[in-house]
Amino acid sequence: MIDTSKIKRFALPNLPYVFLFWLFDKLGEAYRLAPGRDMLHKLITATATLTGTIARPAPSFNTFDLLIGLICISYSKNHPGNII
Hints:
Number of strands: 0
Distance between the termini: 40 Å
């Protein structure tokens, strides 16, 4: 029999970080898919591509998107008051 109290004790405190990873992964995907040559144009047009990336619930497994998600999560774990 699986002890669910151990699973809950581990999963529930980490659930917000899973959601934040998904959100930052989607932001990285929107930036990567945005048309533009430089950072300013990509950031401006990323807002238009964000609606398309959020519509797909699965996270992106592109290396750039995963790195953006991991970097932002590691920052938010070390600085809990400054998530966004």
